[in-house]
Structures are given as C-alpha cells and as structure tokens.
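Re: [ENG-882] Designed sequences occasionally contain unexpected residues at chain ends

Forwarding the minimal case from QA. Structure tokens:
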C-alpha cells in the first residue's frame, strides 16, 4: 500500500469552502477500486489549512483515480486550485498498517 499526506492552504477565510469541495471529491471515491482511505481534515488551529490523508492499494489505483472519468457532480481540479493560496504540499508514504484499514 502507498499513502500520501496533502496539505493545502486556502485563501484567507476560504478553508471551509476548500474542505467542502474536498469532501465532494472524497464522496466520489467511495467504492473506487484501490482506494483504502481518503480522509479530509481541517487544522484545528489554522482553519484555512486542510489536510488530505490518502491510502491506496498501489500507485496504479491512485493514478486511475486521477485520470478516470469524473462523475457529473464531481469538482474539477480547477475548482480546488482556485481556492488555494499556495501550491499544495505532498508527502509520499509507505503504509505499514494500523487501525481502520481493511485487511489485505
């Protein structure tokens, strides 16, 4: 399994909008093959900062989610980018296990 931590900073006062749109992205990934976890969180002390924690079965699954056909109500990448005050920070992870992941 692979993982990613994405940290995104919205324009001032727009953290809630960013979180909402990323929650819509997450809803579109429900049942997507290879998506083990797609968690959206807001920073409790910096509400314009939103974190996305991703766990995928493998890199191919993660790439398929990026290149697949979006659903009709899915946000476009440009919708997310328009809310960002700076480029997202991405940390690649090797997932070792833990609580909450399906056995596999």
């Amino acid at each position: 399994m692979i993982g990613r931590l994405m940290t995104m900073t919205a324009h001032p006062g727009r953290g809630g909008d960013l979180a909402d749109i990323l929650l819509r992205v997450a809803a579109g990934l429900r049942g997507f093959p290879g998506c083990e976890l797609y968690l959206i969180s807001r920073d409790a002390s910096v509400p314009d900062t939103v974190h996305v924690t991703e766990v995928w079965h493998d890199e191919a699954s993660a790439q398929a989610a990026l290149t697949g056909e979006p659903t009709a109500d899915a946000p476009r990448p440009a919708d997310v980018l328009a809310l960002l005050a700076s480029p997202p920070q991405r940390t690649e992870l090797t997932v070792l296990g833990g609580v909450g992941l399906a056995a596999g």
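QA comment: On inspection the terminal residues look reasonable. The helical segments are 15-28, 59-67, 77-81. Proposing we downgrade this to a documentation issue.
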